[in-house]
Design a protein that fits this description.
L-valine-2-oxoglutarate transaminase activity; D-amino Acid Aminotransferase, Chain A, domain 2; 361 residues; globular; binds 2-OXO-4-methylpentanoic acid
């Protein structure tokens, strides 16, 4: 595999300091983008080539481009955090690079070398460093690497040309309420992914498939949908775009990776952070009936969602057909908040990086 260098072609016309500061004061999630982006092409027979850092701009595609018809697309999400000394570090970029390779294999796309993925993210963050929000707050710079099939033609087959891009967006809390507990609608008929499908790949199709159930959740007054397994409609899998954890006193449990669940980097990190703090942490099966029963008998003390975008968000209310219940009295739980703080402390550089997770630029 070739590793292209990234040629820098900085913008002659970046946003003014005042405009940028205005955005950074209230970035929201995924609404604003920095001044630059990285693009790298792949062509059959030639491999990866033409790596460039260029001004952020629309891309032009022929209407018959493969991705527009057959959704051959994958993406990632990771964050850059301002450190106490003003420098910037990203969190576990190699985990995202490895998952990007797994997603590429599942969608018959070329694998980007891990070092190129990291180099591309680094180049963009270095160029747009002024867009990384100040140290200490909830905000960070969200990076969105993605790859699309760019061959032109309507034949259904793996494309022979691809484009990899990285864009960046200053991000506040994913849910407008911040750490305010969210409400969950358990969808007992619509499923997100099936065994043998592509639920463990980070591809746009999985998110498209989640939108209808997500819209149904909204009609039930809920913030997020929770999916069950596709065969027995019994076992909790994940939410529309984040993993779930169940807290049983001193033990946290997350659904095991069955092949139809996305292997979240935050999910994985929390297994380690929880053990560091003296909790038991395990992967296992939790049924929706058990979830309800254990909440009602008090043994299930807290539930939280986790993901790069969502960080750790407490679950306050759960609804399923015909019934609903409160989780930890509808308030953020103690374990949830402790884990959240411990992870953010590492990411913001205010706690020792015991696992060597931070990638300093
Ligand atoms: C992430 O947490 O990075 C995600 O990809 C979730 C969502 C914003 C799609």
């Amino acid at each position: 595999m070739t590793t292209p260098t990234i040629e820098l072609k900085p913008s002659a016309n970046p946003l003014s300091v005042a405009e940028r500061e205005g955005i950074l004061a209230n970035p929201g999630f995924g609404r604003h983008f920095t001044d630059h982006m990285v693009t790298i092409k792949w062509t059959e027979g030639r491999g990866w080539h033409d790596g460039q850092l260029v001004p952020y701009a629309p891309i032009s595609l022929d209407p018959a481009t493969t991705v527009l018809h057959y959704a051959q697309e994958i993406f990632e999400g990771l964050k850059a955090y301002r450190q106490p000394d003003g420098s910037v570090a990203t969190f576990r970029p190699e985990k995202n690079a490895e998952r990007f390779q797994r997603s590429a294999r599942r969608l018959a796309m070329p694998e980007l070398p891990v070092e190129t993925f990291i180099e591309a993210c680094d180049a963009l963050v270095k160029q747009d460093k002024a867009w990384v929000p100040a140290h200490g707050g909830e905000e960070s710079l969200y990076l969105r690497p993605f790859m699309i099939a760019t061959e032109v033609g309507l034949g259904v087959k793996p494309a022979n040309e691809y484009l990899f891009l990285v864009i960046a967006s200053p991000a506040g809390a994913y849910f407008p309420g911040g750490v305010k507990p969210v409400s969950i609608w358990v969808s007992e008929d619509r499923v997100r992914a099936v065994p043998g499908g592509m639920g463990d790949a980070k591809t746009g199709g999985n998110y498209a498939a989640s939108l209808l159930a997500q819209a149904e959740a909204a009609t039930k007054g809920c913030d997020q949908v929770c999916y069950l397994d596709a065969v027995e409609h019994t076992w909790v899998e994940e939410l529309g775009g984040m993993n779930l954890y169940f807290v049983y006193g001193n033990k946290i449990v997350t659904p095991s990776l069955t092949g139809s669940i996305l292997e979240g980097v935050t999910r994985d990190s929390l297994l380690a952070v929880a053990r560091d703090l003296g909790y038991e942490a395990e992967e296992g099966r939790v049924s929706v009936d058990q979830w309800q029963r254990d909440s009602e008998n008090g043994s299930l003390t807290e539930v939280f969602a986790c993901g790069t975008a969502a960080v750790i968000t407490p679950v306050g209310t759960v609804k399923r057909a015909g019934t609903e219940w409160k989780q930890s009295g509808g308030e953020p739980g103690e374990v949830t908040l402790r884990l959240r703080q411990a992870l953010l402390d590492v990411q913001r550089g205010t706690a020792p990086d015991a696992h060597g997770w931070m990638h300093r630029l």
